[in-house]
Amino acid sequence: MKKYIWSLFIVSFLVACKEAPKTEETVQEETIVTNEAITDEDLENAIIYEANIRQYSDAGTFNEFTKDIPQLKELGVKIIWLMPIFPISEKNRKAKGDLMVEDIEDENERKKYLGSYYAVADYTAINPDLGNEEDLDNLIETAHENGMFVILDWVANHTGWDNKWITEHPEYYTKNEAGEIIHPAGTDWTDTADLNYDNPELREAMTASMKYWVEKHDVDGFRCDVAHEVPTDFWNANNAELETIKPLFMLAESEKKDLFESAFDMGYNWEGHHIMNELAQGKMDVADWDAYMKKIDTIYQKDDILMNFITNHDENSWNGTVTERMGDAQDAMLTFQYVIPGMPLIYSGQEYGMDKRLKFFEKDSIPKTKGRVWEQMEKLGEIKVNNPALHGGKNAADYKRLETQNENVYAIQRSKDGKKVIYIANLSGNPTKMSVTGMNGSFRDLMSGATVNLNEGEATAMSPYAYMLLEPTE
Hints:
Largest sheet: 8 strands, parallel, barrel
CATH architecture of the largest domain: Alpha-Beta Barrel
Organism: Nonlabens agnitus
Number of strands: 20
Keywords: Lyase
GO molecular function, one term: lyase activity
Distance between the termini: 37 Å
Protein name: Alpha-amlyase
Radius of gyration: 23 Å
Domain Glycosyl hydrolase family 13 catalytic: 50-384
């Protein structure tokens, strides 16, 4: 896992030495950071929020989202991930299914389709539908004032078909035998053009584009789309170059092990997410999850971080809402993602109990009524932020599997700095009884505040998908 120790002096020195001579005023303008740079300590109790700006409000703008940043602080959010904010290509823009916008004859119907965020037309510009540079800066400054960090969603694997590189630098792209630029092989991403990292000039241009956002807009890192489709040696060099400016938080949309070795702080817990879905649907059981935890313990380094989620933009739009996929298990699974090792994700609308699939290529909006899910997240956020037993960063709390003599009951203890949190859940659709081996005494349920007495010799009844989040009272 990458490590860093920085000061403003070192950053200024490196930038001054690396580039052509500049005036002192210019160097300072490029390197001064307006907030504290993110640290390993920040990651221990961090919650990350995926902001779908287009769908977050009726207006779909930075400014409307910025208004709610103080509310996100109530949920314990520390990192805000902005889905791609760049202009979206119009050429080969997708409408729905295999239909392209250009195939639609009705002009008004064509206007409905706004394209994929991941078909980037310009890496150093802002989609005017979202706002302007001043609006983005205000969002970032507001986040910083609230003790949060902002990362941009970065699409390094491909561009849209009217990106200026298509005409100015066709050599940056992958081509077929006929010399034609192609979309990424093995995908249906026909609205994008595949980039060729065998070209060193492309690598330089991509790094320069990413540096622009750190230097000019003081962003705190990047979520890198399909990071495993881009060569790891590019990420190693690129991310090291970016951190000559300031320490950054780097999230890979990938589980590929070598990405963690020096380039990225965190990756997606995709496999764990799919098992969570299967647990909720009765297609897998607790033994499958235990096997997975043993597997990742041997695959990853101790300081690697996985992002835990029960929904995100892909899952919601293409595979279904939390209710569709997890049904009656959704509350237990939401708490599950906070208590297992790693960093929990909140996706726009999830905090409001959103029970619809957001349109991907069209304008849509999320609900804004606080209810049961908001209250659950608020409690979980408070525990995550304040209790070291749920630390999930590079110095994560210990994870101990507890024995329950019941194949449907999952029980774990997380502990650090003398603090303990115990999670016990019936991960089945049937009522059951359980007792935890070696656990006797009085506990406080952190979610309800109730006192719970557990005695090894006495079975405790648990309804389907019931759970307890406990701390010892003695």
